[in-house]
Structure formats: structure tokens, C-alpha cells
């Protein structure tokens, strides 16, 4: 069952974040989690974990890209 739970949570998290980005609703995943919680606490927890991991990765990637851009800018010769 764990495999099914993880697979469903991963897919739902991916789909939710895509829709969330498309609609510009930063907290859509919270609403989805509430719907899940009413039916399956296990799936709700797995879903929230997936969402948090994905959001954390996005933030870390943006931070890293900004650091790289800043480093590249500092290496460019000044006029």
C-alpha cells in the first residue's frame, strides 16, 4: 500500500502545483489537503510532504540560480 500511497501523493502534488502556478493561487495545495484529510489522513500527510519537498526544492533552485548569476556578473569586465 505504501507504494500506491506514494505514487498517488506524488502525482497529486505535481498536478496541484501545476494548477496552483497556472491560477496564481499560492495556497491551493492547502485546500486540496483539506479535501484529502476528510477522506484519508495517510494520503493527506504523504501529499503535504510531497508538496513541501517540491516547494523547498523550487526555492533552493531559485536561490542557487541567483548566486550563480551574481557570481557571473562579478566576473564580467567593467567598462
Describe this entry's structure for a reader.
It is a single chain. By secondary structure, this protein is mainly alpha-helical. The protein has one domain. It has 3 helices and no strands. The chain has helices spanning 2-23, 28-39, 41-75. Helix 1 (2-23) crosses helix 3. The longest helix has 35 residues, at 41-75. It is elongated and about 65 Å long. The N and C termini lie far apart (63 Å). The relative contact order is 0.12. The mean pLDDT is 95.
Question: Helices and strands in order, then pairings?
Answer:
Elements: H1 2-23, H2 28-39, H3 41-75
What is the H-and-E element order?
A: HHH
Oligomeric status: single chain
Radius of gyration: 18 Å
Average pLDDT rating:
95
Helix-strand makeup class: mainly alpha
Helical fraction equals over 70%
Instruction: Report the total helices.
Output: 3
Strand content: under 5%
What sort of overall outline do the alpha carbons produce when their principal axes are compared? elongated
Biggest sheet record: none
- Low-pLDDT residue spans: none
Q: How many domains?
A: 1
Amino acid at each position: 500500500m505504501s507504494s500506491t500511497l506514494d505514487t498517488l501523493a506524488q502525482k497529486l502534488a505535481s498536478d496541484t502545483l501545476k494548477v496552483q502556478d497556472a491560477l496564481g493561487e499560492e495556497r491551493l495545495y492547502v485546500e486540496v489537503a483539506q479535501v484529502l484529510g476528510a477522506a484519508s489522513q495517510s494520503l493527506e500527510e504523504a501529499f503535504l510532504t510531497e508538496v513541501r519537498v517540491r516547494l523547498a526544492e523550487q526555492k533552493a533552485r531559485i536561490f542557487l540560480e541567483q548566486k550563480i548569476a551574481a557570481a557571473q556578473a562579478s566576473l564580467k569586465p567593467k567598462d
